[in-house]
Amino acid sequence: MFNLRKASQAYCFGAALISVLPLLSSAAHAQSAYPDRPIRLIVPQSAGSGGDVVARLLSEKIGAALGASVVVENKPGANGIVATSYVAKSAPDGYTLLLAGVSQMSFNPKLYKNLPYDAGKDFTYVAPVVDTPFVLVAGKSSPFKTLAQLVAAAKASPDSVTYASAGAGNSTHLSTEMIAAGANIKLKHVPYKGSGPALNAVIGGQVDIMTSVLGSALPQIQGGNVVPLAVLASEHASDLPNVPTLKEAGIQAPSMPGWFAVVGPAGMDAAVVGKLNSAIQAAITEPAINKRLKDLYFIPLQGTAEQMRARADEDAKVWGDFIARTGVQVD
């Protein structure tokens, strides 16, 4: 006997399936066609900064691997908060990405009470890119030629020694506070809007010292404009074989992370993430680019999106504990 109720249910199911099929087909096509327009790579620092150099060095190669142009856009401000919150609110379609640094993903959540983004929930990790060591430098007109001289002066007169940073909460800020904590001294913080102005202040003698990315400081060291006091790494820098590590200089402190990673808004499609990860990894391992990165003291990082997220989480824990223990605050 013909069952009107069952026939009606079957018809409704069939109609629903037919209506969904075009959507599934469209989604599958969008994934396979990605990318079909330019990709924006947002850099949370100004032009000429370490992150900007890395982004522009890699963008053409990444674009060539994907078959679409990668346009680098600088959105500096508020220790990367401007750019990071912008990307967090963007569509998760793979066309707006962020070259995020450890400051934005691991430090800021521990430093700011009302951060306009959630580093743990608002982003899709795509790929690790590079890491970089730091170096503590003093201006050539400064009386400090060794770290021991600096520590002695700071102990004799707390807050008399000034240090520049690229902004409150930046890696250049936390790393110098880490040195101060390890040496049991107090230094006076003078924040600037970017690493370039901060380093220029040290060169010009307006500020005594700074912890800088090694690649940015090296030309100034080689030019005699600043004096290297210590390398914030577990081993010597090949271009500065006579400059001690912090441990050799008598200060126990963890190595400062200086990594960059590509992230996008939360909810990105796994297939799109896979394509991007492959293109980024191919770019950093291309022989000419790999050599150029290493010449600038950017160490290429290989790995998965999940491995990069795990590293960011671990750095957030280590440095979050340091921030809580020492009471470091943003201005």
How would you describe this structure to a colleague?
The protein is built from eleven helices and eleven strands. The protein has 331 residues and is of the alpha/beta class. Strands 2-1-3-10-4-11 form a six-stranded mixed sheet, with helices on both faces. Strands 7-6-8-5-9 form a five-stranded mixed sheet. Helix 2 links the parallel strand 1 and strand 2. Helix 2 crosses helix 9 and helix 4 runs parallel beside helix 11. The relative contact order is 0.17.
Topology overview:
Elements: H1 4-33, E1 39-43, H2 50-66, E2 70-74, H3 81-88, E3 96-101, H4 102-111, E4 123-131, E5 134-139, H5 147-156, E6 162-165, H6 171-183, E7 188-191, H7 195-203, E8 209-213, H8 214-222, E9 226-232, E10 260-265, H9 270-285, H10 287-295, E11 299-300, H11 305-326
Parallel strand pairs: 1-2, 1-3, 6-7, 6-8
Antiparallel strand pairs: 3-10, 4-10, 4-11, 5-8, 5-9
Question: Gist?
Answer:
The protein is α/β, with parallel strands linked by helices. The chain is built from 11 helices and 11 strands.
Properties at a glance:
alpha/beta, six-stranded mixed beta sheet, 18% strand, globular
Within the largest sheet, what's the order of strands?
Answer: 2-1-3-10-4-11
* End-to-end CA span: 80 Å
Q: What's the story with the biggest beta sheet?
A: 6 strands, mixed
* Percentage of residues in helical conformation: 40-55%
Q: Give the uncertain stretches in residue-range form.
A: 4-14, 23-30
Q: Can you give the mean pLDDT?
A: 89
- Written as H for each helix and E for each strand, in order along the chain, the element string is HEHEHEHEEHEHEHEHEEHHEH
Strand fraction band? 15-25%
Helical region count?
A: 11
Derived from helix and strand composition plus strand pairing, the structural class reads alpha/beta
Q: Determine Rg (CA atoms, Å).
A: 24 Å
Count of DSSP E strands? 11
Q: Rough shape? A: globular
